Prior knowledge:
The complex is a heterodimer of chains A (about 500) and B (about 350).
Chain A: H1 2-13, E1 27-29, H2 36-45, H3 50-64, E2 88-90, H4 104-113, H5 119-123, E3 132-138, E4 141-145, H6 148-153, E5 157-160, H7 161-167, H8 169-175, H9 186-194, E6 199-203, E7 212-218, E8 229-234, E9 239-247, E10 254-257, E11 260-265, E12 270-277, E13 289-300, E14 306-313, E15 318-321, E16 324-327, E17 333-342, E18 347-350, E19 353-356, E20 362-371, E21 376-385, E22 393-402, E23 408-417, E24 423-432, H10 435-443, H11 448-459, H12 461-464, H13 469-482
Parallel strand pairs in A: 3-7, 6-8, 7-9, 8-11, 9-12, 10-13, 11-13, 12-14, 13-15, 13-16, 14-17, 15-18, 16-19, 17-20, 18-21, 19-21, 20-22, 21-23, 22-24
Antiparallel strand pairs in A: 1-2, 3-4, 5-6
Helix pairs in contact in A: 1-11, 1-13, 2-3, 3-9, 7-8, 10-11
Chain B: H1 29-35, E1 40-41, E2 48-52, E3 55-59, H2 68-75, E4 78-82, E5 93-103, E6 108-116, E7 121-131, E8 136-144, E9 150-158, E10 164-171, E11 176-185, E12 191-200, E13 205-214, E14 220-229, E15 234-243, E16 251-260, E17 266-275, E18 281-289, H3 293-301, H4 306-323, H5 328-346
Parallel strand pairs in B: 1-5, 3-4, 4-6, 5-7, 6-8, 7-9, 8-10, 9-11, 10-12, 11-13, 12-14, 13-15, 14-16, 15-17, 16-18
Antiparallel strand pairs in B: 2-3
Helix pairs in contact in B: 3-4, 4-5
InterPro entries (chain A): Fe-S_cluster_assembly_SufBD (IPR055346), SUF_FeS_clus_asmbl_SufB (IPR010231), SUF_FeS_clus_asmbl_SufBD_core (IPR000825), SUF_FeS_clus_asmbl_SufBD_sf (IPR037284), SufBD_N (IPR045595)
Organism (chain A): Asticcacaulis aquaticus
Protein name (chain A): Fe-S cluster assembly protein SufB
Amino acid sequence: MAAVKETIETVQKLETYEHGFVSDIEMEYAPKGLSADIVRFISAKKNEPEWMLEYRLAAFERWQSMDEPDWAKVEYQKVDYQDLYYYAAPKPKAKLNSLDEVDPELLAVYAKLGIPLKEQEVLAGVASAPKYAVDAVFDSVSVVTTFKDELKKSGVIFCAISEALREYPDLVRQYLGSVVPVSDNYFAALNAAVFSDGSFVYVPPGVRCPMELSTYFRINAENTGQFERTLIIADKGAYVSYLEGCTAPMRDENQLHAAVVELVALDDAEIKYSTVQNWYPGDAEGKGGIYNFVTKRADCRGARSKVSWTQVETGSAVTWKYPSCILRGDESVGEFYSIAVTNGMQQADTGTKMIHLGKNTRSRIISKGVSAGKSSNTYRGLVSAHAKAGGSRNFTQCDSLLIGKTCAAHTVPYVESDTATAQFEHEATTTRLSEDQLFYAMQRGLSQEEAVALLVNGFVRDVLQELPMEFAVEAQKLVAISLEGSVG
Amino acid sequence: MAFDLTPLDLFDPSSYPTRRNEEWKYSDLARVLREVPSRAVLTHLQAATGDFGGFYWHCAGDGQLGDLQAAVAKANGRLYLDLSDVGAEGVVAGYQGEGRITLGVGEHLILLEDYSGALDYAANTTLHFELAKGASLTRVVILDEPEGAVSVRRSTVKTAPGSAFKQYVFSTGAKFQRFETHVEHAGHGAHVEMHGAYLLKDTAHFDYTTRVNHAEIDGTTEQLIKGLVKDRATAVFQGRIYVEKGADGTDARMRHQALMLNDGAHVRAKPELEIYADDVQCAHGNTIGALDEAALFFCQSRGMPEDTARAMLMQAFVVPVAEQIEDEALREMVLNWIEDKAGGFYAL
């Protein structure tokens, strides 16, 4: 019961969105609007090589000829792309030599969010506490990356992507856009044109990354779109676990977040990618909140490679997100574990694609959707087997839980098979919170809110178990907080 | 809620749905119809009536499906609707028509629909059913169309409280074959079943699309679709269960299972749930796979030759759909039909 009690206490403590504060930090903006000049401005700001500028401009041209997708089960007021700032960065005070010189106000933001940016803070904890390195992205730029040196000793490159473009241009050029091409979709093209920062990870052959890597995304500035780009490459036999967290201030206007994440796993490599998405979801009337239009895709390029996506989606006003795996290498494995919780007026259309191309490839999808309030929660997924993907297997389970009379839950799976030896299984259920279980829990002395938290945590347990330890606890709290006020 | 049927007129190419239409994503009618060499406005339906093994036989004519309601009145609860088309050598006939059947309070009808024929044709037929309180309609559909046929068979069903609608569709596919059923579920004890089985080979294409809209409380829906695909054939199953706000007590289940007998065959499944009410039980399942090697091994270890074992296991896979038909004569007829069709099918 300790966990339940803790959850309840957290719920009480956090009457509203905890991370909704705005920090007053001196910012530098690009002029409002989007044009080829803005693209050039961003590229110049980052001292990018010439080929990168060309890449961006080509993407921008492509984007102009594309239409915003409208097939998802979400309704929102269209974004005015000319009314956004595409670049907003905290004004650099001076050239930084070490972490100690980072703007203390910025550090304060992260301290408030509970993100350890000073290495000693991490170390100061319990001796056995696992270490994790953080890349902190504030609006359009990466402000700090911790443990860089220690990681470098084992050959792991972990830095902001703008830095990687300068320091390791060949590596970036080789892989950037190779998983999510510029023309992939509307938001991916937009991102390719204007992305400002994000993380770059390269794990050399045979190296097991000595600590968890993580990026913390924070939107702060008003009328700003955040377009981050993350590229992770696990070379042959490498292993890396990467965590991602996100928050934004409470505002009445909707803000756009259009990220692209590309993962490449070569032979025998493994990437574990976990997300706890807690962007501001808007208020109870659906005012404000983040539009989260994200393209995430992994390419299991090598034989026996493995990519595992785990996501806890509790924030954002509108979510449009399908972390996918292209299982190209023989015997490669793709996994997708997802908890999507929607409350209030939130809308989520999320799921995955498992594209089986290689022989004996395997994939597993566990998706748990919880909808409450007036929200709408859609699972949309594709599992496909190419004619050459003999012996491939998939297991999909997507369960939806409805709390209340005004919410909606949808399941839209696509299953396509072109090979006789593929074995695909798909199960989906939609039910409401069991009255019997609720009654039982309350009859044992739990309040209604406690009982709901307990049952919902039980419902999503299969996925929580896949999260790294520190995240699991946080995620459990988040799930309870997101559902606050949904019963009664 | 009005039925959402894609407008389609065989004689107006601009109405042909393309794959860009999400509802037709897996069945490219526009492409297939473009390949049809000519679309003469011809009908080869021969009007006829009579007795057919205990059924009242109604055969449509003149491009229209005839007065189905009058046929129902004469049928005494058992109607054989013959929509076989004979086609004609050297020309591709096109025909389309609509028919309407209304069942009054407490009326029962067993309807056997036969869509077969020879040579090539393009057909587009729509049947509208309306059931009053306590009425029941059992619909057994045999889609035994020629290889070169392009056919779109659609139906709409309106149920009433306490009514029952049961549909069993058996198909061997065609060049293009789409069977679409749209049901407005009245709830309040109304019960809907939409089953199907398919045996597809060569380049046959069969698309079974079902849409059920639960608008009221306490409605039940059950679906079991099973099929075999071999050679380069394509099976498509698109099912959608839609539960409106307030349709509490809905219990809906959908299951699709396909066996693929060789590489190069295609199965596309899209079983959807769209739910706006919370006190419901909804589930769908979808499996695609090969014949169970363990079962095959077991049969062989009991002395059964491999071919026989395969044939038996395949038959055992699809037969359960037919076995649910309550009417004995009809069930036997369908089982015989499956056995007949399956003869050439099992041999690999």
